[in-house]
């Protein structure tokens, strides 16, 4: 299973393309096989960084800010809808039962 490309690069989700590119360049300098003697570990990490960067670069850039996208989504879904809440039948039954027990206790106290 492939790892999340944002985690591989150590970036927050939705990072800007400029931030992705800067982080990619930093990591490539550190993990390039020519700098680290070509060990299998550094080569694997380098390839992982390459794949993550290519995957993020291939994704289309989102249109607008996150607030604009959320507003658009709410508008498409019809906006927030309030539900009218009535009395819950289970609560009503329990309340009736407790009232009946109180009446019974009062009757027993009178005896």
From TrEMBL:
Pfam families: DnaJ. Gene3D superfamilies: DnaJ domain. Transmembrane segments: none annotated. Residues 4-70 form the J domain. InterPro entries: DjlA_DnaK_co-chaperone, DnaJ_domain, J_dom_sf. It comes from Solirubrobacter deserti. Residues 74-95 are annotated as: Disordered. It comes from the Bacteria. Residues 74-87 have a biased composition (Basic and acidic residues). This is J domain-containing protein. CDD domains: DnaJ.
């Amino acid at each position: 299973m492939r790892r999340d490309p944002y985690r591989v690069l150590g970036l927050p989700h939705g990072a800007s393309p400029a931030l992705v590119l800067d982080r990619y360049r930093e990591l490539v300098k550190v993990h390039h096989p020519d700098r680290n003697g070509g060990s299998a570990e550094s080569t694997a990490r380098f390839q992982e960084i390459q794949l993550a960067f290519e995957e993020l670069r291939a994704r289309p850039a989102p249109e607008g800010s996150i607030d604009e996208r959320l507003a658009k989504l709410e508008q498409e879904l019809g906006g927030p809808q309030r539900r009218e809440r009535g009395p819950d039948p289970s609560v009503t039954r329990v309340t009736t039962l407790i009232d009946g027990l109180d009446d019974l206790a009062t009757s027993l106290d009178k005896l």
